[in-house]
Amino acid sequence: QVQLVESGGGLVQAGGSLRLSCAASGRNFSLSHMGWFRRAPGKEREFVAAIRWRTGSTSYTNSLKGRFTISRDSAKNTVYLQMNSLKLEDTAVYYCAADVSSSPFSARWPGANEYDNWGQGTQVTVSS
What we know:
Blueprint: E1 2-7, E2 10-13, E3 18-26, E4 33-39, E5 45-52, E6 58-60, E7 68-73, E8 78-83, E9 92-99, E10 117-118, E11 122-127
Parallel strand pairs: 2-11
Antiparallel strand pairs: 1-3, 3-8, 4-5, 4-9, 5-6, 7-8, 9-10, 9-11
């Protein structure tokens, strides 16, 4: 079991930036991927970004490319989401997720239901 603790959410004005962090902890685990998802009020959960732990390669939902950047600190088992030029529609609860079951050598990105562990979520509110 992997515990995920997110931080960095808050209230920000449109056009501003926030950086979310998610630290993974536990015993005897090996990360294959970590991802960020979000759920806006009244909407389904959506994929934001993911990072392949072994190589650092990244994947983004198309609409967020160029504004959001996912990165990792392997030594700290921590993943980050840098969010720039925030818009009102970025308001959501952001969740990080860890995949410890997939092969770290797979070229396929895991789907949401393949992530084994989820954080509690952190609220991001963008105001006008």
